[in-house]
Specification:
With 353 residues, the protein is of the alpha+beta class. The chain folds into two domains: 254 residues, Beta Polymerase, domain 2; 58 residues, Up-down Bundle (Methane Monooxygenase Hydroxylase, Chain G, domain 1), CATH 1.20.58.340. It is built from eight helices and seven strands, in the order ββαβααββββααααα. It has a seven-stranded mixed sheet. A hairpin with a 4-residue loop joins β1 and β2. The longest helix has 63 residues. It is rod-shaped.
Length: 353
């Protein structure tokens, strides 16, 4: 089960201390560099920060991606290269940050959470992604290798779309758009699960479905913690007055904000649906209990007069006229059957069963 909170390893340390608090401390640090312009693209895997120096004054756009955050020496080098404040570096390594946007004049610092479903699992998990947007450069920090940016990389390599013609701010938008599109894909999967649980609840409600329901509610709570602050962060980009955000990118950021609102609305809708499914389960269980009680009540009601008749003729009085009659036994059973049949017909006409 995923943890909603983690115990920080930097407890008691002074502000600005760079201590990685994520769960994957064995993830090797790997740097990739993609430098591109309208006419060419250069991509380097297992790059070094020094490879960025020739690109800095070329006027092209550079995307530096860092996978694995446990190497604090690399983080210090990145901080020195871009003049990143120590508290910002601390936030990058403290991987339980809520999504936020900070304007530091020379660069923008953005934190979001990328949702994913690990292979062999059905639970949604998240990873903190940090962005540093500087002039003609975007630096991304990921806890581990693997992301949802392959589509953006393909557009850069093949010069599809407008990404090669725009600046680093548009690259930030493209990566954020990929993250939010993945939110929609995950929410679609969750919606299908909710519909399946709802249908099963109608057919055969049981404790297994109730456990699945509670897991889904916890999962949506987990997603809600990632999406609600994201609205504020994306809204800050959309309304931002930073010189790093060009006017050409503004319409795309507004569209990104609208998509964020749609994700939040979907999360809230699914939470309401799960509440309705839970009420459906309780109603179904109550209805089943009522049906059982109705059957038992009808059976008990039928046997009440039969018990009364049997009790009368079970008395040990010596002088009972019916006991000496030749057909008394047959008459007794005839009376029992008539009473039973009459009550069944009465209950059926009243539609009690």
């Amino acid at each position: 089960m995923k943890r909603l909170f983690t115990v920080s390893a930097k407890h008691g340390q002074p502000p600005g201390t760079m201590v990685y608090t994520g769960q994957r401390t064995d993830e090797p640090t790997r740097i990739t560099l993609i430098d591109y312009g309208p006419d060419a693209v250069v991509e380097k895997s297992d790059a070094r920060l020094g490879d960025y120096a020739p690109c800095r004054e070329s006027g092209t756009v550079s995307w530096i991606n860092i996978d694995g955050l446990n190497d604090t020496a690399v983080m210090e080098s990145v901080g020195n290269l871009f003049g990143i404040h120590p508290l910002v570096l601390e936030d990058i390594l403290h991987t339980t940050q809520r999504p936020k946007l900070e304007d530091h004049a020379d660069y923008l610092f953005l934190v979001v959470r990328m949702l994913y479903v690990p292979a062999g699992s059905s639970e949604v998990q998240s990873e903190q992604l940090s962005f540093i947007l500087a002039k003609n450069c975007l630096v991304t920090f990921q806890e581990r290798a693997g992301d949802v940016f392959d589509g953006v990389r393909d557009r850069i390599r093949n010069n599809h779309g407008r990404v090669r013609k725009m600046g680093a701010d548009y690259l930030l938008y493209a990566l954020m758009d990929a993250i939010i599109d993945n939110y929609f894909a995950i929410m679609e999967t969750i919606g299908e699960k909710i519909e399946a649980i709802e249908q099963s609840m109608l057919e055969n409600p049981d404790a297994v479905l109730l456990n699945q329901l509670y897991r889904m509610k916890r999962e949506l709570l987990y997603i809600r913690k990632s999406t609600w602050p994201l609205r504020e962060a994306v809204g800050g980009l959309e309304r931002g007055e930073s010189a790093l955000l060009g006017k050409k990118t503004a319409p795309f950021l507004r569209d990104l904000y609208d998509h964020t609102i749609q994700v939040i609305d979907t999360v809230e809708t699914f939470r309401d649906m799960l509440g309705g499914v839970q009420e459906l389960y309780l109603s179904s269980m109550g209805q089943k209990t009522n049906q059982v009680m109705q059957v038992l009540t009808i059976i008990a009601t039928i046997f009440i007069p039969l018990t009364f008749v049997a009790g009368i003729y079970g008395m040990n009085f010596e002088y009972m006229p019916e006991l000496q009659w030749k057909y008394s036994y047959a008459a007794f059973w005839a009376l029992i059957l008539l009473l039973t049949l009459g009550m069944v017909v009465f209950f059926r006409r009243r539609k009690w069963f």
